[in-house]
Specification:
Length: 59
Amino acid sequence: MGLQRGVEGSQAQHQEVKRFYGLVKELNPQLEQEAQRQVAQQRVRQAGQQHSRSGGIGM
């Protein structure tokens, strides 16, 4: 059937499903915080760009 598994010379190792999902659960709050931080930074940049295009407040 021509099927192949894995990659020769790969350093990947099998993890138990329980361990994998434990790591996902542990990292998820950290990733969520980072995503929120990046969104906030992007909004600040966009607001700054809009502000500079409009000539600023009171000008």
